[in-house]
Amino acid sequence: MLQPGQTAPAFSLPDADMENFDLASLRGKQHAVIFFYPKDGTPYCTQEAIDFSDHEMEFNRHDCVILGVSRDDCLAHAEFRDKNGLSVRLLADVDGKVGHQYGVYHYREQDGQKKLTVLRSTFIIDKQGIIRYACYEVPPKGHAAEVFQVVKQLNGNSPSCKSKKTP
Fold it and tell me: What is the spatial distance between Cα 83 and Cα 139, in angstroms, rounded to a whole number?
């Protein structure tokens, strides 16, 4: 699991409009909130994505972009975004490579078979590409507001998260 103070793993992923997003493009310009979620259209994932979208302008005022990442493909992301009026950028990690780099995808045994599961997780990366906040197994309700409070403090000390698991 990643910890605050580490350099964020670099990645490049397609978004819902099939345009490539490269994390390095933010270096020196903007902070990033990256939230990993299990699946487009599920109730908790929808709630979390809507909450982040509803607060996106506030994050933008603090030079922060919000990125949602799941294993869904670009077309599923576009449908999810359009159906729910989402404004945050949704990235397709179809092969799971980025999620594995961030430690959010794990294999668990279920009914005698290994199944890939996702720890709903959020990371805040500062303009220099350093992880300032890393939380695993976050609750979807109220999480966007908690993350916003952390973003407002980015020039101060690294705050801790209130999730079930901290690294």
Answer: 23
Instruction: Count CB atoms within 10 A of the CB of residue 29.
Output: 9
CATH placement of domain 12-22+29-152: 3.40.30.10
Q: What is the pTM of this model?
A: 0.89
- Give the active site residue among 45, 64, 74, 161: 45
Whether the CB-CB separation of 161 and 142 falls below 8 Å is answered with no
Give yes or no: 45 in active site: yes
Find the angle CA(121)-CA(42)-CA(9) to the nearest 5 degrees. Answer: 25
pLDDT tens string 5-48 = 999 999 999 999 999 999 999 999 999 999 999 999 999 999 99
